[in-house]
Amino acid sequence: MNRFDLVGVGVGPFNLSLAALAAPVHGLNVALFDSRAEFRWHPGLLVDGATLQVPFLADLVSLVDPTSPLSFLNYLREKGRLLPFYFAERFHLPRAEYDDYGRWAAERLPSCRFGHEVTGLRWLGVERAFEVSFAAAEPVLAGAVVLGVGSVPSVPEPLKALVAGKQTLALHSADYLTHRPALLAAESVTVIGSGQSGAEVFLDLLRSRSTVDGLRWLARTPAFAPMEYSKLGLEQFTPDYTAYFHRLPEHVRDSLLPAQWQLYKGIDAETIAAIHDELYRRGIGGTWPSATLSPGVEVVSATSDEGGIELTVRHVQQDRTALVRTAAVVTATGYAETPTGPLLAGLGEAVERDSRGRLVVERDYRLRLGGDVTGPVFVQNAERHTHGPGAPDLGLGAWRAAAILNAVCGRQVYALPARTAFTTFGIDPTEAL
């Protein structure tokens, strides 16, 4: 079997960052495998005008190695777009351009191998390596493994059967562009979810439909709220905060995450302003636009018939229910971490779990493994419960990848600063504040 020092499972932005930072490391034999044919980043949500919610420096490499040839700025230079980007004065990239940048980088990294579906891992004590198996290829050996299998669309329980069925126009926002023509033609559309995806879908429908009659936006959150974007607030996406969060007791972390929803489930201020501007434009002449925006509302049940979809909704604060008839539903209800159980099944009881059955992830992103497994398995974007709201954030991707590479190599391949925030998180009883 071919043997690698490091094998990555999945080639999303985070493992792609790992591949980019590993490329110049002399003597490190790396391979990353993905079942898809090429790198794609949320293709169903590349709506015209939609941008990233992080600055362009949150690319694959720049916050660790700004001299890398795989930086976004070098991508622009090779595409002949550096001066146009300079004059555009854009801090946040169009989503479509980030998608193209990721594909450009993947094409320049021989370690990225698409069309290979990894099916499982098992530890071979004699080889002192993991056997990585595939659906349709010979297995390989790996001294270390990094799981970067991304996330999957999350649909609330009352809507699962509706979205899974084929009888009605009900879908997750991840498939929005595929169904956009039908949604523009539908008599009525209800968008569910108060995050960035819900806002972008609602704005696109608001701009593009010939009428806003029957267009609704429902959200369980108490308001259509902006994402936390103050400079000190953003320090909760620094490695300093990640280290602090990881040290907290499990029950404290679990209680803290839901309260931090505006850090990663809010809407950027520009999108909120654009929605208000479009509603204002639709009301020129003194008539209120007939679109409905209702926060504080949760879907209790959903049924469908030949006449369309019927939602039973409950207003949380009023504790009142009502019926909503609609021709189409778009659930912009976020994503959940891709289950890693099937991949890790071959390691059996060696994989340690917390009181709620979740993976125990150490500070350096490696799984806590027991038994006779002596090799490391790391995770990327599967550790929000242990490392906090920054786990899925692109801005921390390069840092995490560099930390993993340092751990795999057993030396400081990339120098990471000891301090990254002005804020002091927590107190040390041995020191004065």
The percent range for helix content is 25-40%
Content-based structural category: alpha/beta
Low-confidence stretches: none
Rg of Cα set: 23 Å
Total strand count, please? 19
Number of helices: 14
Q: What percentage of the residues does DSSP assign to strands (E)?
A: 15-25%
Mean of residue pLDDT values = 95
What form results from the Cα inertia axes? globular
Topology:
Layout: E1 3-9, H1 13-22, E2 30-34, E3 51-55, H2 72-79, H3 82-88, E4 92-94, H4 95-107, E5 112-114, E6 118-124, E7 129-134, E8 140-147, E9 151-153, H5 157-164, E10 169-172, H6 176-185, E11 189-192, H7 196-208, E12 215-218, H8 239-247, H9 250-259, H10 261-264, H11 269-282, E13 292-294, E14 297-305, E15 308-315, E16 320-326, E17 328-331, E18 335-337, H12 341-344, E19 377-379, H13 384-387, H14 397-409
Helix pairs in contact: 1-14, 7-11
Using brief descriptors, characterize the structure shown.
433 residues; alpha/beta; seven-stranded mixed sheet; 19 strands; globular
